[in-house]
Amino acid sequence: MTPLSSKRLFLFDIDGTIAVGDTLYPGTRDLLDYIRSVGGAAYYITNNSTRSNGDYVKKFREVFDLETNESQFVTSGYMTLRHLQEHHSGDKIYVLGTASYIAELRKNGLHVTEEAQEDAACAVVAYDSELTYEKLVKACRLLSLTDIPFYGTNPDLCCPIDFGFIPDCGSICQMITASTGKAPRYLGKPNPQVVALCQADSGYTAEQTLVVGDRLYTDIACGLNAGVDTCVLYTGEATPEEVARTQYKPAYAFADVQKLLEACRG
């Protein structure tokens, strides 16, 4: 475990960690200022696949008054896009997701269909805030009648919102699995490639890297899988009781972003 004062590359989850909805948590802006002051870098690793990197840059500017660039965001949607480009370029791909995410995949040259045609080469399920029962039926039909690869953007069961939580991609996939017996391969966190991409882009080492999140089985597991230190914040899903019994033990744990900042400053 490397001291927090030596950390330079901070990989933040967003929802439930540094913000909820359109509200930036107290201390976040000051922590980002601290990171810049020590010559470090902040990246945002989120399993929310409803927004593109460009959408996040716009939201951070217009809602949070924070300037970022697209390379600072590594989303589960982006990780899925990379996988599909590498393994299914030219294939017909069935996608259950938001219109925005489907448009992003198409913009990047992928042959996406929203119809469950049996000549599809694979099926992809993302977090879908526009989910309908008809979409679930289509996904179940395709996976029941074929033996194609089934991908999920992320295993998160719930997504933080201002009043609590709502179902996330993992919950949608569990409905499909319960109906078809087919389980997805998840491409976002806790995939260690998320951390590797940020390190390659920034040039920082594993010892200089800290993954910060609120969820043990995605955020903390991602850092552990990548061999870097991790920090859980109790502003989202995880609780001290869960940390005490989990297999995903974080190196650090704090009540919120402000407490993490104080610890970094010593």
List the helices and strands and how they pair.
Layout: E1 9-12, E2 19-20, E3 23-24, H1 28-37, E4 41-46, H2 53-62, E5 73-75, H3 76-87, E6 92-96, H4 99-107, E7 111-113, E8 122-125, H5 133-145, E9 150-152, E10 158-161, E11 164-167, H6 169-180, E12 185-186, H7 193-202, E13 209-213, H8 216-226, E14 229-233, H9 240-245, E15 252-254, H10 257-265
Parallel strand pairs: 1-4, 1-13, 4-5, 6-7, 6-8, 8-9, 9-12, 13-14, 14-15
Antiparallel strand pairs: 2-3, 10-11
Helix pairs in contact: 1-10, 5-6
Descriptive terms for the model:
5-stranded parallel beta sheet, 10 helices, about 270 residues, alpha/beta, globular, 15 strands
Q: How would you classify the helix and strand content by structural class?
A: alpha/beta
Q: Sheet bearing the most strands, described?
A: 6 strands, parallel
**Biggest sheet: strand arrangement:** 5-4-1-13-14-15
Provide a count of the helices: 10
- Inertia-based shape: globular
Unreliable residue runs? none
Order of helices and strands: EEEHEHEHEHEEHEEEHEHEHEHEH
What is the tally of beta strands?
Answer: 15
Terminal residue distance: 16 Å
Mean pLDDT: 95
Strand content: 15-25%
Oligomer: single chain
Q: Radius of gyration, Cα only, in angstroms?
A: 18 Å
* Helical coverage, percent range: 25-40%
